[in-house]
Specification:
CATH topology of one domain: Isoleucyl-tRNA Synthetase, domain 2
Distance between the termini: 71 Å
Shape: globular
CATH class of one domain: Alpha Beta
Radius of gyration: 34 Å
Number of helices: 31
CATH architecture of one domain: Alpha-Beta Complex
Structural class: alpha+beta
Helix content: 25-40%
Number of strands: 33
Length: about 950
């Protein structure tokens, strides 16, 4: 401590300092906990509370689930948490019953990998991380209902995750009713003959295995052999979103290969239309809606069958009008028909460039499949890449012309999209054009170019693609499209295909079923067992939760990262005592084998909003009355859901889409009244920080970098500065603990909210934090004498200028807090506080109290302290937010700008209610305007009362 600082503290022992802030904040946090200040009552159940509070309008405000990292929080993490806390506090002060709490999403790969590296059980390390983060968040003064907090690793939580999985497993999607129904109702239809068994025959004549296979084709959760992203280096399967664009694991940077494994899937595709349609009623950023629309990828077109060897290859196309231009076909390398059709030898006359230099079609296909398996889906679809592929040795027939066309496999066609097969129209598709050129395939123009290039594709540099041109060269076998536009041609060819039984109009989706298995330990066990025939059986609810066993070796077995032929070995499969069990599932004790995969880390976050409502219920998922109260449909929210959900935009098409799917299934089955989980979504920006790199490009500690004349040095050596993420690995992390220790939590809260609009990224600058610290010090001085600690406010009436400053601030701050414009709210509070400081003298109580109330949502500790010192015995948290008097909000006068030829010539002080005629007369009579006109003829006067007059001269 400097001598000047020490002297100042002696002279002003009651000054607001970091030490005083720490004492105030700790004391009020203890009070809030003991008092249950933030406990929100439910209408029923064990958290039911007073009827008066429940009768208020409700607000359910949520943050996206935090993951308890071992590194703890840096100042970028709590941005969203502080924002929702400010909004929740404001909502309480405007008469709402507010549910705001926070839990932890604690299963998943990061915790498991940390455990493997350190030899610490993932539960031990995760619970320690939760304890650390809880302490850090508490220090920020977040107003959470702590009775409702939980972690996804708690068995009494994942009991219900498992229960929901079983509801989905025991359901099917009725396309006619457009909703999920219990699987027992489907079985009843098969038994009665109301619905035909897909494989034919009578239901009661099928074996148990055959029945299981039939039902798997309908269940919303089902196991199947599926192409997956297999990462030997991690020993687990990864979702597409966990694989980088260069075909490596996002975590660890290991190679990822395509493999076929028995996996659990969620039939999210059944809900594609509803997931699209219901977006319209949600109050979400348009950019997030667009990402979900694109991910779901609804497209209208036609299914077309191309005959081959007594069978058919089915394609989906949105350009069925170009069918006469299809000169070859391409299958995904993984397409199951490849193995069925590939001949032993090459057909006579096969081009060498088609074979890839291989002796037989089987050899060519095998080699190419291995090549394609080493690349990610993103790589395979990259338009800039050179197109590769091999001929399968098979020809199909173009159904409209009968022409034989070769069938290739190529990596730019994916099994996960459409049917895994395309008809290639190289003259009118850029990818097909590039492939045809590379493999020397013919092209046929069937859409007449409008750019003068002619109709011979051999002379073109690229494909001609148009939806507004005439169809040509498209006649044969009783159908002609020549001369038609695209829309008419599509309709005619679709009708013709349907009449011939070789196609039909249909809708396709880009969305694929959700891969729901992981080959690791730290996740929810599946509540599924298999009998001796391999038939899957659901555990009854009485056996839930199926707890994750304690195992000695929880590491996934990793393999040579470059060995694509390995198979995963799950950690649970090593615990034979847990895996092999004798159970009575209703037909006597039998021996079963448990599922040894675990659920993905998304499972726990698909429904956590419901657990916040009723966190201790061990009898049902959620009390119906409580769920309807907090999340049920209401005016403006036809699908129900959380009132405000704040989090990062990076979860646009994973967590958000998966949670919406689970909500819809639970809604269909009658377990909840809300068909959507989150009505309003707000994406906060990111707090960035400067990264300093040495000559090697390695980050150096940002706190130790010196700036000299606009250049930066670390230990005397120059370093480069760039703006990037904040994090431990970049050596630029600043912890909230540091800022709280130096300035206090209220200062940190204010600074993060004042940095800029909540939805944009902004750079952190520790030096700028002091500005908000000084605001709080000035506020303190306006109420408390720094020398004596006495309250200095007076009972005198404020002057009119102060009343106008007060009520304008109230009006603006109220509007800004409601609109999540916290930075501008702070600016208005600062302006009012500065007005009071400049006015001098004692601040009137009638101004000081509303000022304290206005800052309470943003800086709750100092507000609580000042409110108590002002003589109040109840908490500031539940006080009414001030209401502006309209008479003082409207200015007595406003400044009107007078322009001549676009240049400002005068400014007039006029009444806000001045008429256009009055304002025009005043402007023309103003001496400065008369002088500027200098007798010039006036052609027109444009008046925008009360702020603008624009005079146009001849």
């Amino acid at each position: 401590m400097s001598e000047n600082t020490a002297a100042a503290e002696v002279a002003a022992p009651h000054r607001y300092t970091a030490a005083m802030a720490a004492e105030i904040e700790a004391r009020w946090q203890d009070f809030w906990d003991a008092d249950g200040t933030y406990e929100a009552p439910n209408p029923s159940g064990d958290l039911a509370g007073d009827a008066e509070t429940v009768a208020r309008p409700k607000r359910f405000i949520m943050d996206m689930f935090p993951y308890p990292s071992g590194a703890g929080l840096h100042v970028g993490h709590p941005l969203g948490y502080i924002a929702t806390d400010v909004f929740a506090r404001f909502q309480r002060m405007t008469g709402h019953n507010v549910l705001h709490t926070l839990g932890f999403d604690a299963f998943g790969l990061p915790a498991e990998q940390y455990a493997v590296q350190t030899g610490t059980h993932p539960r031990v390390s995760t619970e320690a991380n939760i304890e650390n983060m809880t302490a850090q968040l508490r220090r920020l003064g977040l107003g959470h209902d702590k009775r409702r907090s939980f972690a996804t690793i708690d068995p009494d939580y994942y009991k219900w995750t498992q229960w929901i999985f079983l509801q989905i497993f025991d359901s099917w999607y009725d396309e006619e009713a457009k909703r999920a129904r219990p699987i027992d109702e489907l079985v009843a239809q098969f038994e009665s003959g109301e619905r035909e068994v897909p494989s034919g025959g009578a239901w009661n004549e099928l074996s148990a295995v055959e029945r299981s296979d039939v039902l798997s084709g309908y269940r919303l959760a089902y196991a199947s052999d599926a192409p997956v992203n297999w990462c030997p280096g991690l020993g687990t399967v990864l979702a597409n979103e966990e694989v980088t664009a260069d075909g490596r694991s996002e975590r660890g940077n290991f190679p990822v290969f395509k493999a076929k494994l028995r996996q659990w899937n969620m039939r999210i595709t059944a809900y594609a239309d509803r997931l699209l349609d219901d977006l319209e009623a949600l109050d979400w950023p348009e950019a997030i809606k667009l990402q979900q629309r694109n991910w779901i990828g609804r497209s209208e077109g036609a299914r077309v069958d191309f005959p081959v060897d007594g069978d058919a290859i089915t394609v989906f196309t949105t350009r069925q009008d170009t069918l006469f231009g299809a000169t070859y076909m391409v299958l995904a390398p993984e397409h199951p028909l490849v193995d069925k059709f590939v001949p032993e030898t090459w057909p006579e006359g096969t081009h060498d460039v088609w074979t890839g230099g291989h002796a037989t079609p089987a050899e060519a296909v095998a080699k190419y499949r291995a090549f394609a398996a080493s690349k990610s889906d993103v790589e395979r679809q990259a338009d800039a890449k050179e197109k590769t592929g091999v001929f399968t040795g098979v020809y199909a027939a173009n159904p409209v012309s009968g022409e034989k066309i070769p069938v290739f496999i190529a990596d730019y066609v994916l099994m996960g999209y459409g049917t895994g097969a395309i008809m290639a129209v190289p003259a009118h598709d850029a990818r097909d054009f590039a492939f045809a050129r590379a493999v020397e395939l013919p092209m046929r123009c069937v859409v007449e170019p409008t750019d003068g290039r002619g109709t011979d594709p051999a002379a073109w540099d690229d494909a001609f693609v148009s939806y507004d041109a005439k169809i040509v060269n498209s006649s044969g076998d009783g159908i002609s499209l020549d001369g038609l536009g695209v829309v008419e041609a599509k309709a005619r060819i679709t009708e013709w295909l349907t009449s011939r039984g070789i196609g039909e109009g249909t809708v396709n989706f880009r969305l694929r079923d959700w891969l729901f298995s992981r080959q690791r330990y730290w996740g929810e066990p599946f509540p599924i067992v298999y009998d001796e025939d391999g038939v899957a059986h659901a555990l009854p609810e009485s056996m839930l939760p199926l707890e994750l066993p304690e195992v000695d070796d929880y590491s996934p077995r990793t393999f040579d990262p470059d060995d694509a032929d390995t198979q995963p070995e799950t950690p649970l499969s090593r615990d034979e005592d847990w895996v092999n069990v004798e159970l009575d599932l209703g037909d006597g004790v039998k021996r079963y084998r448990r599922e040894t995969n675990t659920m993905p880390n998304w499972a726990g976050s698909c429904w956590y909003e419901l657990r916040y409502l009723d966190p201790h219920n061990d009898r049902r998922l959620v009390d119906p009355e409580t769920e309807r109260y907090w999340m049920g449909p209401r005016e403006g929210q036809p699908h129900g859901g959380v009132d405000l959900y704040v989090g990062g935009a990076e979860h646009a098409v994973l967590h958000l889409l998966y949670a919406r799917f689970w909500s819809k299934v639970l809604f269909d089955l009658g377990h909840v009244s809300s068909a959507e989980p989150f009505h309003k979504l707000f994406n906060q920006g990111m707090i960035q920080a400067y990264v300093y790199r040495d000559a090697r490009g390695f980050p150096v500690p940002a706190a130790e970098v010196e700036e000299r004349d606009g250049r930066f040095f670390f230990e005397g050596e120059p370093v480069k500065r760039e703006l990037g993420k904040m994090g431990k690995s970049l050596k630029n992390a600043v912890t909230p603990d540091e800022i709280c220790a130096e300035y206090g939590a209220d200062t940190l809260r204010l600074y993060e909210m004042a940095m800029g609009p909540l939805d944009v990224s902004r750079p952190w600058d520790t030096r700028a934090v002091v500005g908000q610290y000084r605001l709080l010090q000035r506020l303190w001085r306006n109420v408390v004498d720094e020398a004596t600690g006495a309250v200095t406010v007076s009972d005198a009436e404020p002057g009119e200028d102060t009343l106008r400053a007060l009520h304008k601030a109230i009006d603006g701050v109220r509007s800004d807090l409601e609109g999540l414009r916290f930075n501008t709210a702070i600016a208005k509070i600062t302006e009012l506080n500065n007005h009071l400081t400049k006015a001098g003298g004692r601040v009137p109580r009638s101004v000081a109290e509303p000022l304290v109330l206005m800052i309470a949502p943003l800086a709750p500790h100092i507000a609580e302290e000042l409110w108590r010192r002002l003589g109040h015995t109840d908490s500031v948290v539940h006080q009414d937010f001030p209401v502006a008097d309209p008479a003082y909000v409207i200015d007595e006068t406003v400044t009107c700008v007078v322009q001549i030829k676009g240049k400002v010539k005068a400014r007039l002080e006029v009444s806000p209610s001045v008429s256009d005629a009055e304002l025009e007369a005043a402007a023309l009579a103003d001496p400065a305007v008369v002088k500027a006109l200098d007798g010039a003829a006036i052609r027109k006067v444009v008046v925008r009362a009360p702020k603008l007059v624009n005079i146009v001269t001849a």
